[in-house]
Amino acid sequence: VRLLKINRISSTVIDHNPDHVDRVRKFGFKAYYGDATQMAILEAAGLADARLLIITFGNQEMVQSLIEEVKRHHPHIQILARARDRIHAFKLMDLGVTHFERETFGSALSMGEKALQIMGVAPFRAHRTVLKFRQYDLASMLKLYKFHSNEKEFISQSREATAAIERLFAEDSDTLKKNVSEESWG
Hints:
By secondary structure, the chain is mainly alpha-helical. The protein has a domain at 104-181. Helix content is 58%, strand content 12%. It is built from 8 helices and 5 strands; from the N terminus they run H-E-H-E-H-E-H-E-H-E-H-H-H. The chain has a 3-stranded parallel β-sheet. It has a two-stranded parallel sheet with strand order 1-2. Strand 1, helix 2 and strand 2 form a beta-alpha-beta unit.
């Protein structure tokens, strides 16, 4: 919400915790108390005029149910949803959601970058590794999506994707050894 506000994009927060609603309001945000899974609450908060609905609660079934309801009544609204993991992201994709974030993916990458640095990898290389891994993982996820309902094929394709990324990073490592100037930042 803060990122939207500093970019002069109005937003409305709906939360079932009255303390959170009070706190958000104190900072100048428009907030309502209520159950954001209820269409009547969303409608009262102005859903019909919204261009984007951001869904951040964690209950997968409730998220999926809300998405189906919003798409049925307001197909023009873009949806950005929190996915618990890759499998949940696939379920969101089944519902036509193209904008989602896996809830622990970003923090896992950040911790991975710090772990690489602690283990002696130069900061630039650690950062570059994480960026490449993120890009490859997202592309791989989109490729694997078409196999997610066939467990045997999904596992086979996942193993193939893992082997491919290992080859990619081995080749990249060889390239970086030849170009030591890129090892800077530290």
